[in-house]
Amino acid sequence: MNQTRNKIMTDPMNKQPVDTWIIDPMKRFMSNSTTSGIILFSSALLALILANSPWASDFHHIWEIKFSIGFGKYEISKSLHHWINDGLMAVFFFVVGLELKREIISGELSNPKKAILPMAAAIGGMVFPAVIYLLFNNSGTISNGWGIPMATDIAFALGVLYLLGDKVPISVKIFLTALAIADDIGAVLVIAFFYTSDINFMSLAVGALFLIILITGNIIGVRNTMFYAIIGIGGLWMAFLMSGVHATIAAVLAAFTIPANVKISEITFMAKGEMLLNKFRKSKPNNKPTVTNDQLHIFDEMHGLLKKASTPLQRLEHRLHPLVAFIIMPVFALCNAGVSISGDIGNLMSSSITLGVFFGLLLGKIVGIIATVFILLKLKVAKLPDDMNKKHIIGIGFLGAIGFTMSLFVSELAFTDADFINKAKIGVIYASVLASFAGFYMMKLASFKKK
To answer: What is the mean pLDDT of residues 403-426?
Structure first.
């Protein structure tokens, strides 16, 4: 009987049509490493087309529709554009925070010897672009845009890299990931310290209180993600939103309070898991589409065992990643990449803001990353992994110049003048597109030619 049951459970013919024709293809599509990058690029392209079409006015008007939350004097009213940038992007930064904590605890940033090269490359790739931007815009309000070309778009960069498939060594992918994560740390710090409005210290103090509650919950062993969601969103994020400190910082801080430890060891998990499987095998089936009460209880025990054997941090990161990759980032791109390119293109491209952003990304990022790595290699402070060569570093330099999502985001924080934002976004888009093609070509040369 048990053999029959096992055969039925594993028989592919037991699948429903919805699994075969919809769910399974969707899973394969979403698990593809390049898919999120393709969707993000498509959203940006659609935004550019609509912003320069006869429907441009209606397209821009959609993002200015006002929405309010709260009650009485505590009501917050913002445009759809602001809710996307301050609300949806907070989820993006929350996932970034989860990734940062995981990498620092047990990932590429946990080993100082392995982390020093990508972290130094990230620093060089942030300093040089800021300096180049300031060479074009060294005074006045336009100088506030120095942070725009500092960030790397990890989704786009890895998306381009994964187009080459297995031809690229795994160490190159790890290096670029570690660089982008270190770059994200820098971007978060820049936003926190340099792109905040007037601070309301009372709201900030309330936010600090909620942060302490979250930290305390972690220390005493609270692992329920709903607790962190309610306190993190209803308390910490809302307080930061009202304080003047950008709300995305609250998302990163909240992410760092999520527990990153398991409650049982792998040995205990395997032993108890085997016990529950044996218990299920011995349970009496009812030969109906539904399961028995005894089987339901076994499923509950299995579910509890799985939760104890995994970390809340990794569960949240795993669950939120599709939401961020396939909804939040494409919506952000659709909202923010809609640049109206009108008038004299030559005059627009000669703007000091556009040039500062363009060369900050395309020159500053490349020179900053490559020069920093080569100097550290020359000084023998660090060394490349065995399967990486210097051509790979040049390719990484170009891929690091893809600033898209983060650079567009910082553009909205750096300026209030719509014309300045428009010019900055043009520089971001042009530089990111060129860097994508150049990075792909350089990485292909590095991977297909001998050292």
So the answer is: 88
- Is 298 part of any domain? yes
Q: Which structural domain range is residue 278 located in?
A: 265-308
pLDDT in tens, 337-379: 887 776 566 666 788 999 999 999 999 999 999 999 999 999 8
What pTM value is reported for the model?
0.76
Q: Are 360 and 132 in contact (CB under 8 A)?
A: yes
Q: What is the signed CA dihedral for 334, 337, 343, 347, rounded to 10 degrees?
A: -170
Element (H, E) at 398: helix 390-400
What is the token pair recorded at 119?
């972290």
Q: Classify residue 424: in a domain, yes or no.
A: no
Under a CB-based contact definition with an 8 Å cutoff, are residues 431 and 361 in contact? yes
Within a domain: 5? no
The model's pLDDT over 141-173, given as tens digits with 9 standing for 90+, comes to 899 999 999 988 877 787 787 777 677 887 888
* Distance separating alpha carbons of residues 55 and 52, to the nearest angstrom: 8
Residue 9 counted as domain residue: no
The count of structural domains within the chain is: 1
Q: Are strands 76-79 and 66-69 parallel, antiparallel or unpaired?
A: antiparallel
Eight-state DSSP code of residue 289: S
Q: Would you state the pLDDT for residue 21?
A: 53
Distance CA 336, CA 81 (A): 8
Closest Cα to residue 47, out of 430, 431, 353, 332? 332
- Spatial contact of 79 and 66, defined as CB atoms under 8 Å apart: yes
DSSP per residue, 215-265: HHHHHHT---HHHHHHHIIIIIIHHHHHHSS-HHHHHHHHHHTS----SS-
pLDDT band at 249 (very low <50, low <70, confident <90, very high): confident
User: In this structure, how many other beta carbons lie within 10 angstroms of the beta carbon of residue 413?
Assistant: 21
